[in-house]
């Protein structure tokens, strides 16, 4: 009898985590590696948030809390959704977990029966497909076109919806493409969704505050309130407040779903860290000027890196409208030979070659669209500059 259950084979390591891990190993072996793989801001958690966590610990907030969030946190989340998004919800519509990832995991685990389909625009964050597999659902990649900015069109969505479709995943600004849906585009998708009342929708708004060129953020439950009763709006403090390590994400949605998610969380991790919850209250209720200043910094980095990457022979990319990633096509490298004699026949070979040249990046396959790789620009300008230099040199060495 094998030691591990079959379900373990359904929990795969993500390309970005694998690339980051390989970078750590190579660095430990003394190699110079620039890691633009992991999706986290390189900034510090704001001081007022850290101070709130200290205060909470000294005040004895170091015990179990209600499973899916303290009343203070739920109140802060309700206020955030009203103030920033125009979504009306009550504390019983709200769930907090150890990161947006746990919230998404709870939602899919609580609702998918074997064979249920999850519609995932390609490209999308790797975890959607992996969690779907884990929950015994079937990920269905829905094609998008670079000409449409990698966004779902109403026609493309309509075509993808089958009788078995249970969830649609929407993510704007998008990891990995930086695509941003306008309110009008969401309304057009909502018209299709209204014709399919069995379909639930996840709106993953994790990168809400990383938005460029003065664009306005729009979210489905606000622009199409008739869909709010079957929409789970997911967000978190990781990306907005540089709090990836605190592990605190949250969502609002229909009460029945929220209760189901809490039942699962009660039998796994129980409440998210009490200290992180107190910190998240301070983050959500606190000033936003630091968030806006960091957004400007991300935009400056985008403006730095995108033209440099696009100028490298064989690579092409669009300028992302939000989030801190650029999704780079390496179509022009396919079939080329490296100085070591390897033929580049897929994007995994490309990222392996770039790693040999000192840059760690995840390849596109896990995101559902190849041949591409993803570059995170949540890193200081000198790193971005050196990474571009190394990728350029790697391009020049191809035959
Ligand atoms: C699109 C998207 N959603 C959700 C998350 C989850 O973030 P966290 O679990 O840190 O809240 C991530 C993290 O990379 C992401 O890229």
Summed up:
By secondary structure, this protein is of the alpha/beta class. The chain has helices spanning 6-9, 15-28, 47-58, 71-85, 100-111, 126-134, 154-160, 183-194, 220-223, 255-266, 274-285, 289-310, 347-356, 381-396, and strands at 34-35, 94-97, 117-122, 138-143, 165-171, 200-204, 231-236, 249-252, 325-329, 359-360, 372-376. The chain binds pyridoxal-5'-phosphate (PLP).
Describe the structure.
The protein has helices at about 5-10, 15-30, 45-60, 70-85, 100-110, 125-135, 155-160, 185-195, 220-225, 255-265, 275-285, 290-310, 345-355, 380-395; strands spanning about 35, 95, 115-120, 140-145, 165-170, 200-205, 230-235, 250, 325-330, 360, 370-375. By secondary structure, it is an alpha/beta fold. Helix 3 (about 45-60) packs across helix 11 and helix 5 (about 100-110) crosses helix 10 (about 255-265). The chain is globular, with a radius of gyration of 21 Å. The model has no long low-confidence stretch (mean pLDDT about 95). Pyridoxal-5'-phosphate binds near residues 206 and 238.
Ordered list of secondary-structure elements with their pairings:
Blueprint: H1 6-9, H2 15-28, E1 34-35, H3 47-58, H4 71-85, E2 94-97, H5 100-111, E3 117-122, H6 126-134, E4 138-143, H7 154-160, E5 165-171, H8 183-194, E6 200-204, H9 220-223, E7 231-236, E8 249-252, H10 255-266, H11 274-285, H12 289-310, E9 325-329, H13 347-356, E10 359-360, E11 372-376, H14 381-396
Parallel strand pairs: 1-10, 3-4, 3-5, 5-6, 6-7
Antiparallel strand pairs: 2-8, 7-8, 9-11
The protein binds pyridoxal-5'-phosphate.
């Amino acid at each position: 009898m094998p030691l591990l259950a079959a379900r373990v084979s359904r929990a795969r390591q993500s390309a970005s985590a694998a690339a980051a891990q390989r970078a750590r190993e190579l660095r430990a072996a003394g190699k110079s590696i620039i890691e633009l793989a992991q999706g986290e801001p390189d900034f510090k958690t704001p001081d007022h948030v850290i101070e709130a966590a200290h205060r909470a610990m000294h005040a004895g907030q170091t015990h179990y809390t209600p499973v899916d969030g303290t009343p203070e946190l739920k109140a802060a989340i309700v206020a955030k959704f009203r103030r920033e998004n125009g979504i009306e919800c009550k504390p019983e519509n709200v769930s907090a977990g150890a990161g947006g990832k746990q919230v998404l995991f709870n939602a899919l685990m609580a609702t998918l029966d074997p064979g249920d389909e999850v519609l995932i625009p390609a490209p999308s964050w790797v975890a959607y497909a992996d969690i779907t597999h884990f929950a015994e659902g079937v990920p269905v990649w829905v094609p998008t076109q670079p000409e449409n900015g990698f966004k779902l069109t109403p026609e493309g969505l309509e075509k993808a919806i089958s009788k078995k479709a249970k969830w649609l995943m929407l993510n704007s600004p998008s990891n990995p493409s930086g695509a941003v849906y306008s309110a009008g585009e969401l309304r057009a998708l909502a018209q299709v969704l209204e014709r399919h009342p069995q379909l639930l929708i996840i709106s993953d708004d994790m990168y809400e505050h990383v938005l460029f060129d003065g664009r306005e953020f729009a979210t489905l439950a606000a622009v199409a309130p008739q869909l709010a009763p079957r929409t789970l709006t997911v967000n978190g403090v990781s990306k907005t407040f540089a709090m990836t390590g605190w592990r605190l994400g949250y969502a609002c949605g229909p009460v029945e779903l929220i209760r189901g998610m809490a039942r699962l969380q009660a039998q796994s991790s129980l409440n998210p860290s009490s200290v992180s919850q107190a910190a998240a209250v301070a983050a959500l209720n606190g000033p936003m000027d630091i968030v806006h200043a960091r957004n400007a910094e991300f935009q400056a980095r985008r403006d730095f890196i995108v033209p440099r990457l696009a100028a490298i022979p064989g690579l092409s990319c669009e300028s992302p409208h939000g989030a801190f990633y650029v999704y780079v096509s390496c179509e022009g490298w396919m079939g080329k030979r490296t100085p070591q004699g390897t033929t580049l026949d897929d994007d995994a070979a490309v990222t392996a070659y770039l790693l040999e040249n000192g840059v760690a990046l995840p390849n596109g396959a896990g995101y559902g669209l190849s041949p591409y790789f993803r570059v995170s620009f949540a890193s200081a300008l000198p790193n971005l500059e050196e990474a571009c230099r190394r990728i350029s040199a790697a391009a020049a060495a191809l035959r």
